[in-house]
Amino acid sequence: MTELGPVAWPPAPIRTERLVLRESESRDRAAFIELFASPEVHVYLGGARPRDELERSAPEVPGRRPGSFVIELDGAMIGQITLTRETGHLPQAAGRVELGYLFLPQAWGCGYAAEACAAALDWFAGALPGEPVVLATQAANERSRRLAAKLGFIEVERFEAYGAEQWFGEWSSVTPCDLVDEATGSGSCGDLAERGHS
Predict the structure, then answer these.
(1) Residues 136/139/144/150 CA torsion (nearest 10 deg)
(2) pLDDT digits (tens, 9 = 90+) for 99-128
(3) Checking CA distances to 166, which of 109, 146, 153, 187 falls within 20 to 30 Å?
(4) What are the two backbone dihedrals, phi and then psi, of residue 29, each rounded to the nearest 5 degrees?
(5) Element (H, E) at 83
């Protein structure tokens, strides 16, 4: 993974109706360990890491790098979103910015992932206008695929990797209605919220 490119990092904290997206801090270390040690979180990600290994190896401030947002609810970390330019994780994603997200199980089912990911994508659209974002998940991960659809990701392909069928989609802040109609010379259809990206 490499940096996003010509993007000032970290941005000011991003506030949504219920959440704050911000850079990680030392107070988040225990939540990061919980996130990476959770078997529920890693069902479709190759399994959780051993807690004792994480306790020994986690840095004082985990997840502090360009494109990595801590998701905070009422002062506590509930998850992480990453926007990273991939270099080899999957051939389909190489050189492209990929959205990743992990949320603690107690935060599932409340709409926090959709709210936080929409805010991160809005920030990305302002930081790197017109650049698409990709997302890969196991096809069996229905929750993740539903979230991707809600965010506006369009399925590009399915393929086999890591012993399972993978779903690969793409999102862009440039939608067909943003493109100028050559016959009328007009275009645009409102903000991201109106286009269903939040």
Answers:
(1) 90
(2) 999 999 999 999 999 999 999 999 999 999
(3) 109
(4) -55, -45
(5) strand 76-85
Under the phi-then-psi rule, with left for phi > 0, alpha for psi from -120 to 50, and beta for the rest, what region is 95?
A: left
196 C-beta neighbours (distance < 10 Å), count: 12
Helix axes 142-151, 112-127, angle to 10 degrees: 50
**Number of C-beta neighbours around residue 116 at 10 A:** 28
Tell me the two tokens of residue 69.
Answer: 């947002």
Cα(66)–Cα(102) distance, integer angstroms: 17
**151-168 tens-digit pLDDT:** 999 999 999 988 899 999
pLDDT at 175: 53
Distance CA(74)–CA(107), nearest Å, equals 12
Residue 35 and residue 83: Cα distance in Å, rounded? Answer: 18
